[in-house]
Write a structure and sequence with these properties.
By secondary structure, this protein is of the alpha/beta class. It is about 45% helix and about 20% strand. It contains 6 helices and 5 strands. The protein has a 5-stranded mixed beta sheet, sandwiched between helices. Helix 1 packs parallel to helix 6. The N and C termini lie far apart (about 30 Å).
Amino acid sequence: MADRLTASAARLLGEALSASGSTVAVAESCTGGLLGGAITSIPGSSLYFSGGVVAYRNSAKISLLGVPPDLIAAHGAVSREVALAMAEGILALFRADLAIAITGVAGPGGGSRGKPAGTVWVAVAAAGGVRYAHRYRFPGGRDAVRREAVKASLGAAIDVLHSGSEEAR
């Protein structure tokens, strides 16, 4: 069950998608389905939610989302490049209008000096060519990192829908 802020963000995203007649698909790694769960917690979400893939292992990112293995080898699974490739892969898989991807280190283990626990990349891709990627560093334990990643991704998708600007930070 999503908290109040997450549910509010999911509702706002749903309203924006409905207003524009657009659909969304999600590709999740560290959040393991929480984003799709938040979006589908809103009644009527079947009108705009196309579906999602939980690609936890690198092999799933490669086989299900079409992330090039050399991209993972060069930049790591938790990177701007892989997040964008995940977003573009899910966009194509579901032929959606908008795609959201999350990849990160939820912790407590699994991090590195350059990518400590709490490091999360969120990417948004749109059929019209808009691409957004942003790195976050969330404090707290595993559950907190995963919840914050979902909130951040919903906010990013809303921003992309409203601004339509191309940004890749």
